[in-house]
């Protein structure tokens, strides 16, 4: 028995004009909303409340160091020593369709246009709020664990790198991806369902880099389906049941199951360089199972949801035992790793290789670098040397055979470009050990890490531990490949920033944490060097919010393009309004809702909200015009089974205007479509 609490809070942030975080494509800028982003928090405490563990899964690309440090400071101000570095795990689902700009290291400023305070604040506040809700709703309850295989939802996107791993190791596994989902189910002592956390390794990149609508991708859609089912009669984002689909060792795992094809010729480009005969690597893109990216997101999300539902319903193995957590800060650019009694190797100062700029088959790079590049290109070398300085001989040698594109560990202006100080952390809930990793471990790296941690527990008297990897936690350090995969220098290897022995260093560090937990000596672990918090308030290339304007004879919320009078299910209702910058709304209200779909009830002569902007079936597009003018288009994709009747769509916004004293204020407004009828076939 434990005390359990769950909570969910909106962390969407600005849905327009902010670069989306994930594909590193500067022109992929937000232009509306498909689904809201949420932070989902789970607290487990001993009955005597001597120990607590907090796990948060947020619908964001990754947790940045800046985000973690600010969240922990807020928690400390609020709760004292209750929630700390060691017992709070913050994990990102790794959606590539959330707003960026919440990083303090310079490299991440390039594609997300700096540090964007409104974006960071939305995440900090949403995560803290979800923890507050969980904290306020603690009750006695029980935990159950289950695991099972998810089929038809992943492929390995760097199979040629995977094949570099020893045959003796590969032969122990039936697949080149981890298909297992682990599920931790929570119920209170009366049997009332509270929620669950599941972990599964797949990139949430069913939505590709042409997408402009903020959303939580396939994993978020799985959460949406589960929560909609359990919170009956509630709108999306409402209700007490919380379903988290958290990331794991997804480094080389894609949901685009049809595999890589040349978008210009249609032939396969499943080759070691992921390159096409015409157009090179930029033409090589992986395709999902659906007929477009929305459909693929739905199919993969549905697969994951269906498996989770089965595991949830059948979960019977109870989790019992003590709680503990261990955390250290480590200077990852300077770890000595003892490979064996005679052989010691070292990690390197951070650096990115050429294939980093090539991107992957899920999202190609901005320049046409090919993956698997093992010799530099003199033109780019020249640009890099002028811009960024030549890497030192020491760094070059340390990273061999990686050709270095950005020697980020040697770049310090205006602030360091990459972290040196990294979090390693494990939380144990009875027989479940959650290994919180600061990045994207590949399939085989994750297997080696889990095995090493399990072995460590075994040899110190704690056998039969379930070890699960939680991905993208606490600070972002790109990828972690095996030493063998590193030799191939595809994207994941080029992005293994601390060099060829990165994985070995992490294995050594996490074994140390596991040993401390197993032998009850966590208090003797060195805290390690504290990470820096750079003094940056807001440093961004994103333009300020201009004053919103309308054309003559029009006002905010007026309908520009009206709905049709009649629709059937599966058709799309579309209406366009005179709009205003959605960023004004985000800054005015954390819980702002841009739209509702309402159904008329003749019995009460009133309109009832049936969908909101968090619904999968609604899409909100914002289009910026000239001179401060803009429009908002709302689509409702009428789902099968929609009740016939009279409906309308409403739009809610804020426009920014200047008062006579030149102070800018935001004024709320709304618009309403004409009523339309949904008829049966």
| Residues in β-strands, percent | 25-35%
Structural class: alpha+beta
Helical amount: 10-25%
How far apart the termini lie comes to 53 Å
Radius of gyration in whole Å, from Cα?
Answer: 25 Å
Largest sheet: 9 strands, mixed
- What overall geometry do the principal axes of the alpha carbons give? globular
- How many domains make up the coordinates? 2
Low-confidence spans: none
Number of strands: 40
Number of helices: 14
What's the rounded overall pLDDT mean? 94
Describe the 3D structure.
With 681 residues, the protein is an alpha+beta fold. The chain folds into two domains: 2-331 and 418-456 and 465-524, no CATH class; 558-679, Immunoglobulin-like. It is 23% helix and 31% strand. Strands 1, 4, 5, 6, 9, 11, 12, 13 and 17 form a nine-stranded mixed β-sheet that branches. A seven-stranded antiparallel β-sheet has the order 7-2-3-36-37-33-31, with no helix packed on it. Strands 32, 34, 35, 38, 39 and 40 form a six-stranded mixed β-sheet that branches. A hairpin with a 2-residue loop joins strand 25 (421-429) and strand 26 (432-436). The model has no long low-confidence stretch (mean pLDDT 94).
């Amino acid at each position: 028995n434990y005390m359990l609490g769950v909570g969910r809070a909106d962390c969407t942030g600005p849905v327009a004009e902010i670069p989306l975080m994930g594909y590193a494509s500067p022109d992929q800028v937000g232009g509306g909303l498909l689904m809201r982003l949420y932070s989902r928090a789970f607290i487990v405490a001993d009955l005597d409340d001597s120990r607590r563990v907090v796990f948060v899964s947020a619908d964001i690309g990754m947790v940045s160091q800046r985000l973690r440090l600010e969240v922990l400071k807020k928690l400390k101000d609020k709760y004292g020593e209750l929630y700390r570095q060691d017992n709070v795990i913050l994990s990102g689902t790794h959606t590539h369709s959330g707003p960026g700009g919440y990083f303090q290291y310079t490299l991440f400023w390039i594609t997300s246009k700096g540090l964007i305070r409104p974006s960071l604040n939305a995440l900090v506040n949403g995560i803290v709020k979800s923890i507050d809700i969980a904290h306020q709703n603690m009750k006695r309850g029980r935990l159950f664990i289950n695991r099972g295989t998810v089929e038809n939802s992943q492929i390995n996107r760097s199979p040629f790198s995977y094949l570099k791993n020893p045959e003796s190791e590969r032969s122990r596994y039936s697949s080149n991806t981890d298909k297992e989902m682990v599920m931790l189910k929570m119920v209170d002592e009366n049997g009332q369902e509270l929620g669950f956390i599941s972990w599964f390794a797949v990139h949430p990149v069913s939505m590709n880099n042409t997408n402009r609508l903020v959303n939580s991708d396939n994993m978020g859609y799985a959460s949406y389906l589960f929560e909609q089912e359990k919170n009956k009669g509630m709108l999306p984002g409402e209700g007490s049941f919380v379903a988290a689909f958290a990331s794991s060792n997804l480094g080389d795992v894609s949901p685009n199951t049809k595999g890589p094809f040349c978008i210009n010729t249609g032939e396969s480009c499943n080759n070691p360089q992921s390159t096409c005969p015409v157009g090179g690597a930029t033409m090589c893109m992986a395709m999902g199972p659906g007929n477009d990216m929305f459909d693929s997101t739905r199919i993969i999300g549905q697969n994951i949801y269906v498996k989770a539902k089965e595991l949830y319903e059948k979960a019977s193995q109870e989790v019992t035992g003590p709680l503990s957590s261990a955390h250290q800060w480590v200077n990852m650019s300077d770890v000595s790793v003892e490979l064996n009694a005679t052989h010691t190797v070292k990690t390197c100062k951070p650096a990115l290789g050429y294939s980093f700029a090539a991107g992957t088959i899920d999202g190609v790079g901005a320049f046409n670098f090919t993956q698997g590049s093992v010799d530099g290109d003199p033109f780019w070398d020249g640009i890099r040397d002028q811009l960024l300085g030549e890497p030192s001989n020491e760094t070059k040698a340390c990273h061999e055979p990686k050709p270095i594109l950005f020697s980020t560990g040697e770049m310090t202006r205006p602030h360091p470009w990459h972290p040196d100080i990294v979090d390693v952390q494990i939380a144990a809930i009875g027989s479940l050990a959650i290994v919180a990793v600061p990045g994207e471990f590949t399939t085989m790296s994750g297997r080696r890490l889990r095995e090493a941690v399990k072995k460590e527990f075994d040899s110190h008297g704690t056998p039969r531990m379930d070890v699960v990897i939680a991905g993208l936690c606490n600070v972002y350090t790109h990828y972690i490949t095996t030493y063998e995969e590193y030799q191939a220098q595809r994207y994941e290897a080029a992005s293994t920033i601390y060099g060829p022995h990165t994985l070995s260093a992490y294995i050594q560090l996490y074994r140390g944490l596991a040993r401390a937990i197993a032998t009850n000596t966590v208090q003797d672990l060195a805290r390690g060097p504290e990470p820096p918090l750079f003094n940056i308030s807001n440093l961004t290339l994103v333009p300020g919010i201009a004053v919103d304007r309308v054309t003559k004879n029009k006002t905010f919320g007026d309908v520009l393009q009206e709905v049709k009078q009649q629709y059937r299910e599966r058709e799309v209702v579309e209406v366009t309004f005179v709009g205003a910058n959605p960023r004004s709304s985000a800054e005015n209200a954390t819980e702002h809702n841009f739209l509702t779909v309402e159904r008329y009830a003749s019995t009460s002569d009133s309109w009832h909200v049936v969908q909101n902007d968090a619904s999968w079936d609604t899409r909100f597009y914002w289009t910026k015009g000239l001179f401060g003018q803009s429009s908002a288009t709302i689509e409702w994709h009428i789902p099968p089974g929609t009740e016939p009747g009279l409906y309308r769509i409403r739009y809610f916004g804020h426009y920014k205007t200047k008062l006579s004293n030149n102070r800018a204020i935001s004024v709320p407004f709304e618009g309403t479509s004409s009523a339309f009828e949904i008829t049966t076939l």
